[in-house]
Sequence to fold (308 residues):
Amino acid sequence: MKSPLFYAKILLFGEYGIIKDSKGLAIPFNAYRGALKTTDTFDEFSKKSNDNLRKFFTYISNLNSELVSFDLAAFQKDLDNGMYFDSSIPQGYGVGSSGALVASIYDQYAQDKITVLENLTREKLLKLKEIFSLMESFFHGKSSGLDPLNSYLSLPILINSKEHIEPAGIPSQKEGKGAVFLLDSEQIGETEPMVNIFMNKMKNEGFRKMLSEEFAIYTDACIDDFLKGNVTSLFTNVKSLSKIVLKNFKPMIPDAFHKVWKKGIDTNDYYLKLCGSGGGGYILGFTEDYQKAQESLKDYKLELVYRF
Fold:
């Protein structure tokens, strides 16, 4: 079968905040990608993927929604012909492995699908997000639908609120010293337990106050700075955000990285923030001097995302 590629995504800003309706900014990350394929002879990877797709097929078959319907006969036939999701996107790393899979299935089997070539009005974007939220909930228990949307459109997406999302133009990369990078924690993170911890914290009035009065304000400022190319202001705000996350989101930061996180703030060599729900996977880093950050983090695997 001939299926298009769908890319990983990075939520630059807005993790957890978007659950509570603050801003978010997600960008496609084309270093990792996935596509539906078929094989005559299963290896361990493709067999496991086919088994998982069958579970997803059952879930989709039982979706009782007027939002979307699928060509289930074609889906079933392809599964029987050895379909699997061939993906280089690491799972449990906060870069949207399930999002790319959901985008692939929607693209291949949704009936009357909204295509990326048509005029994407706000209503169409919100409908897509709602469909993807429904589909991706199979993987996480609760999904915003944002990861599949980003993967499907392959465009940066600005989340102003739950009801207001739009494609965003981000400044083109420069050959400067500054960078956004991924730091590999070498641990798998699971979304659902992390979201549950967050929801329990939300019962605390002090935590809710911090989220609306500090976390959301600095997140929104970072997004504005990034989109406008205000690099100096961006790093001031990212540092503040990094401090807030270290203080208030400790359970989402792997224990081995608490000191590494604080070292960045103390030295100004780099600033770390959560990439996705945390608990493992990638940690997102911002630095005004990528070479200095590389030296400071020489014991860890880094991956470049964007240059300033």
